[in-house]
Amino acid sequence: MQIPFRRLTAEPQPFSLEKKGLMIEGTLRKYRSGLVLLEAVMQGSLDVDCYRCGESFAIMPDEKVAFLISDGPFHGQDETYDVVEMHEGVIDLDEIFDSEIALLESDYHACDKCK
After folding, report:
1. Is the pLDDT of residue 109 over 90?
2. What is the pTM of this model?
3. CA 114, CA 84: separation in Å to the nearest integer?
4. Where are the alpha helices (DSSP H) in 1-115?
């Protein structure tokens, strides 16, 4: 799902995506010039591998996600939020969600037998 920066206003715009058994629901709204605030909750079931025995098992993430999305390179810092840079005037929610899933998958997970 791609959303042009120019379509967003200070009024929160809802969105939802589903991938790999996870659902992310939240809002996008203009934060400051060239910045959009994404606030969402990621829930569902995700298959991961145990880092000790290699067996696959499901985790049930229930995580709040909040960060800023910059329209192009971001110079500076924000004390409250991390900043994700997008290019070509478009917010690619699929790319953002894929990155969040990859972060969950890359963590060290232990199955019940190995805890």
Report:
1. yes
2. 0.86
3. 35
4. 93-106
Residue 114 located in a structural domain:
no
Which residue carries 């934060």 as its tokens?
A: 31
- 49 occurs within a structural domain: yes
Distance of CA 93 to CAs 28, 38, 76, 78, Å?
10, 10, 23, 21
Provide the β-strand partners of residue 58. Answer: 47
Domain span at 26: 2-106
Taking only the tens place, the pLDDT of each residue in 62-80 is 999 999 999 989 988 888 8
Neighbours of 6 (CB within 10 A): 9
In whole angstroms, what separates CA 93 from the centre of its chain? 8
Give CA separation, 69 vs 16, 86, 89, 96, in Å: 17, 7, 11, 10
Whether 115 is in a domain gets the answer no
Q: Assess if residue 7 is contained within a domain.
A: yes
Query: How many distinct structural domains can be found in the chain?
Result: 1
Q: Any idea which residue has 């805890």 for tokens? A: 115
